[in-house]
Design a protein that fits this description.
Elements: E1 2-11, E2 14-24, E3 29-33, H1 40-47, E4 55-60, E5 70-74, H2 87-98, H3 104-112, H4 127-140, E6 145-148, H5 157-172, E7 177-181, E8 193-196
Parallel strand pairs: 3-7, 3-8, 5-6, 6-7
Antiparallel strand pairs: 1-2, 1-4
Helix pairs in contact: 3-4, 3-5, 4-5
Length: about 200
């Protein structure tokens, strides 16, 4: 269970985001929707314990120390894929980092219903498959919550819907995912909860 109450982040005299709340039990898919510069990415980093909020309360499974309980699948620019690596190389690197078994990537891909092209270069994947690769890498850690930024990025609406459907499958298998986008429509009927960000 991830629970955020009236989170706000103030930097350099102005609010990056404020008044954002969510409550997501295990198996939930939450969509964070907002335009560019609305604080979506910073909100995800705050949920993951990578940015300290100015106000509000955040817990994961009742604990206030959340960093070890939330996996960051992608939040640009700090956390993203390396274009020159192959899909399988990304998986092996993440496996070493998280100290998980050899089957962790396969299980994550199965949860998403995604057939990973392990020999392809990341830069050769389309944007939707890059997002699914990020999601799979995030799921490998087996942490209670995964955050994923920019589901919409360079992705046509029908492919966005496929990504959201894959995330829904993973949540139905037990994952809890908080994912951001600028487009609400592709996630309708799939997300359990919504957080709406506005430009400060």
């Amino acid at each position: 269970m991830i629970r955020a109450v009236e989170l706000g982040l103030r930097k350099h005299g102005h609010w990056i985001f404020q008044g954002l709340s969510l409550e997501a039990p295990p198996g939930s898919l939450v969509a964070v929707v907002g335009p560019s510069d609305s604080g979506r990415s910073c909100f995800l980093l705050a949920l993951a314990g990578r940015m300290k909020v100015t106000r509000g309360e955040l817990t994961v499974d009742g604990a206030r120390s959340v960093r070890g309980k939330v996996a960051v699948a992608r939040v640009r620019p700090p956390i993203d894929l390396t274009p020159e690596l192959r899909v399988g190389e990304h998986a092996r690197e993440r496996r070493r980092l998280e100290r998980v078994g050899k089957d962790a990537f396969g299980r994550a891909c199965s949860a998403l219903g995604w057939n990973a092209p392990e020999k392809e270069l990341t830069e050769e994947l389309d944007a939707a498959d890059r997002t699914l690769l990020c999601a799979a890498l995030g799921l490998m850690a087996g942490k209670p919550v995964v955050v994923l930024d920019d589901v919409h990025d360079n992705t046509a609406t029908d492919r966005q819907e496929q990504v959201w459907l894959a995330l829904r499958r993973a949540c139905d298998a037990g994952a809890t995912i908080v994912a951001s986008t600028v487009e609400e429509a592709p996630a309708r009927g799939l997300a359990d909860g919504w957080v709406r960000c506005a430009r400060a």
